[in-house]
Amino acid sequence: MVALDGPSGTGKTTVARKLAERLSAGFLDTGAMYRVVTLAGLRAGIDMTDAGAVTAIARDAVFTIGTTPVRPSVTLAGEDVSAEIRGPEVNDAVSPVSAVPAVRELLVARQRKIIDGVLAEVGGIVVDGRDIGTVVAPDAPLKVFLTASPEVRAARRSAQDTAAGRESTPAEALASVDRRDRLDSSRAASPLRAAEDAVHLDTSDLGIEQVLVALTELASRRGLLHCAAEVTQ
Ligand code: DC
């Protein structure tokens, strides 16, 4: 298992997905789980500052998270919401949702179950989030903490928004990235921080392929290549 943590805009999710493909492993985007719960709350029209109401949504919403790296779809009440969970409404509302301790408890339990299932079935998994190396899977054999300068992260977020057909200038993206970083790092429950034994990788000056080469090398040194093949043998 590979735990990939770091702030938004470091390329974490893209890199995690591609690394999983390369390792023939499963993939879990834990941010998508906080996002789908947020979308469910917005759709239900609840008061998103009401921790009890948000927790009830996290407990009762019917959602699925795909774990195949090629097409990891996210559904809510049977509808594919993979694109909608990346929209501006969810971007603006997700950090406070992820700061509610009871929501984290529910989702962390579900993440551990998914991880165990994929490890048993596929033999390996790459998991990306904020607290994977510290809380969800502190025994992961490889933990990586990805960083990048705020300007680079904002530029990446803005490019992603534009590619998805949403207007976003780098200045707006920087403000949004900054705001979420502050919320994610300062919350009381599992704030964003690197595990003590995490390998730090600054991706500011690296393209996706270079990050992947570095991660594959790290995985290889930990004996994590060909994990799927070992299980099926
Ligand atoms: O990685 P992302 O941008 O999709 O994450 C969405 C939000 O969820 C972000 O505010 C951080 C939070 N999150 C979290 O608190 N813990 C995780 N394991 C993953 C995401």
What does this structure look like?
The chain is α/β, with parallel strands linked by helices and about 230 residues long. It has one domain (about 1-230): Rossmann fold (3-Layer(aba) Sandwich). Helices cover about 55% and strands about 15% of the residues. It has helices spanning about 10-20, 30-45, 50-60, 90-100, 100-120, 130-135, 150-165, 170-185, 210-220, 225-230, and strands spanning about 1-5, 25-30, 65, 75, 80, 125-130, 140-145, 200. The strands form 2 sheets. It has a 5-stranded parallel sheet, sandwiched between helices. The chain has a 3-stranded antiparallel sheet with strand order 3-4-5, covered by helices on one side. Helix 1 (about 10-20) packs across helix 9 and helix 2 packs across helix 4. The structure holds 2'-deoxycytidine-5'-monophosphate. 2'-deoxycytidine-5'-monophosphate binds near residues 30, 34, 35 and 94. 2'-deoxycytidine-5'-monophosphate binds near residues 35, 94, 129 and 130.
Short key terms for the protein model shown above:
single chain, 233 residues, alpha/beta, Rossmann fold, five-stranded parallel sheet, three-stranded antiparallel sheet, binds 2'-deoxycytidine-5'-monophosphate
